[in-house]
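A common beginner's mistake is to predict each chain separately and then try to dock the pieces by hand. The better habit, illustrated here, is to supply every component at once so that their relative placement is modeled jointly.
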Amino acid sequence: MDILRFITAGSVDDGKSTLIGRLLYDTKQIYIDQLEAIESSGRVNEDGEVDLSLLTDGLKAEREQGITIDVAYKYFNTGRRKFIIADAPGHIQYTRNMVTGASNSNLAIILVDARKGVQEQTRRHSIISSLLGIPRLVICINKMDLVGFDQNVYNQIVEDYKQFAQKLRVKEITFIPVSALKGDNIVSQSTEMDWYNGPSLLDHLEQVPVSSDFNLENARYPVQYVIRPHTHEHHDYRGYAGKVISGIYRKGDEICVLPSGAKSTIKSLELGGEALEEAFAPMSVVMQLETDIDISRGDVIVKTDEDLEVSKEFEALVCWMNNKPLKPGAKLILRHNSTESRAVVRKIQYKVDINTLDNNEDVDQVELNDICRVFIKTATPLLLDRYDKNRANGGFILIDETSYSTVGAGMVASISHESELNYMI
Amino acid sequence: MNKYYLDYLDQLEAEAIHIMREVAGQFQKPALLFSGGKDSITLVRLAEKAFRPGKFPFPLVHIDTGHNFPEAIEYRDRLAERLGEKLIVRNVEDTIKKQNLSEPTGRYASRNGLQTYTLLETIEEFGFDACIGGARRDEEKARAKERIFSVRDEFGQWDPKRQRPELWNIYNGHINLGENVRAFPISNWTELDVWNYIKREQIELPNIYFTHERECLVRDGKLMAWSNFIHKDPEEELVTRKVRFRTVGDMTCTAAVESVAYDIDSVIAEILDSKISERGATRIDDKLSETAMEDRKKGGYF
Ligand SMILES: Nc1nc2c(ncn2[C@@H]2O[C@H](COP(=O)(O)OP(=O)(O)O)[C@@H](O)[C@H]2O)c(=O)[nH]1
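With all components supplied together, the output reads:
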């Protein structure tokens, strides 16, 4: 059994909450007491059915406003998989939530109301999914019951979407006609749509490959913590605790520590006191080296077979998540895995129009929920990968230096290794 | 099958270990909140995996309401002894005396609400800047939106509007003076995941998690372990049943479920069969209002 993490997106009222409620309900993940709580809150729809969307509506403040305003996580499992749903709300102003939920997802479900077809929000959610490197999209054309389960309506929407989707950089797009309310093609095959031969949504979610989403090519091991027991038994023990975020490490591999460049060989890999022959993403392990070299938290252990360099200057796509606009020259804390550095946003190159994926070069500041391409310089050299090459090592967050809130999410787009310009921060 | 395939329990374990090490790396004075329940017992196993053969970079802290199951307390002391790690116990009783708090009375009287005061006092006493807890997002709707690193103000309060977006596996542990963070390494685990992990790791649990005969008070259709700590109305009935507990907390607000499950496998089988969620089955205090949990979180309880 493995884990599939997915995000659900759609405009308000497209049926996202109903769809999730239906998935949970039909896979028997809703408990009687939860149903009772919903029933006692008195919300049923016109047909007298319990409002399944209440299962996923969150906090009191939101319930009072009748909208969801933050990413909520839901869990269910079948015999084949554990599923983690990041439920991100669909309002225009909440790009930041969608980006947050998308960052860890293997797949995105995007809802389209069959009566309305492809909307601006459909395009936006698809573009954000693509920018965040989600490899697989499922376009659920919902409320098919309201268009008489008509194949032509479905085909037209699929055509429209495919036209637009040429711009996207995703591995796979799947279309499924559904009725979240009635349950058609959600868990079991619909009897109303003989013309559709594909899998139900759940079948698809159970089958879609996920293990291939881990990058096993580029070995990256950020050191989080150094274990030094100082006991009689483990007098000289020095273990580097960390997580293999990508790639594979084996006992005996030649490694290099960045940024120092020091080299050594892997003496042992272990987990819970047991020795391992190899460790691969996404395992958390402890590594010991043959020689004593100075390594501390924030260093990254890589393999010498890749010729890697650290850098202090790079370009990135940044989603801005703060009310206060981002301006060129802004100084921030940048956190990349277990490394932190001061950073300055030297230049804002362009803003991405998330409805069309066009670039808008006429920009001097970046507002909340904007996505833009910027040029960043850091005080500490970092080992970065391009986000599209290695999602696990290409993302970073930006932190405000005084409030300490997380104000931006960045994805490395290009890295300059030899700095032509010798700016000082 | 692909050789480089990690089972879901291994993936959850790897994520939790990573989170614990981030806490150790980012904070000066972390603590692990230990309740004696299966979730915090799981946390302890994860800490062993994260930091052995070294010592834990944090003490275990138990906020004792004085109304705990004796079995859980025994278990706690034995565990700390076996681990050779530091255990700090602070009593709600002392806080009540010191701060001159009034104890709740009546039918639903519980010290659960007072736990918050003792926790905040303990945080202040030791200057803890991060507390690791065993809360899971599947427990309750209000928790579904909780972050893995959750910032609390000086009063321990949780403000949904101030929560930081959390992306990838990158955790922002920066805080201002007086603030602290609650960190939840098993956020993404469900009740069943925890049981399956306990089974796989062959972790010993306090025996009240398994079936035993017990005198119980029937209240609102639930079975409460009968003890001197509970107030009994004259019309309420005492019965003896075969029961086990799904969560192990304060005796005044943790209900038992009728069960014949005598080992982990039979507990897992019962959970798979059961149609009532863990919190619903066992927490009297969440019943009081639909948003009870959320209100308590805002007040500084987990
Ligand atoms: N007829 C029909 N109504 C639906 C369907 N899915 C959702 N709805 C209704 O559409 C409304 C909005 O659904 P909801 O799930 O709250 O939308 P959300 O805002 O995307 O979460 C509710 O009244 C649902 O009952 C469907 O497949 N068919």
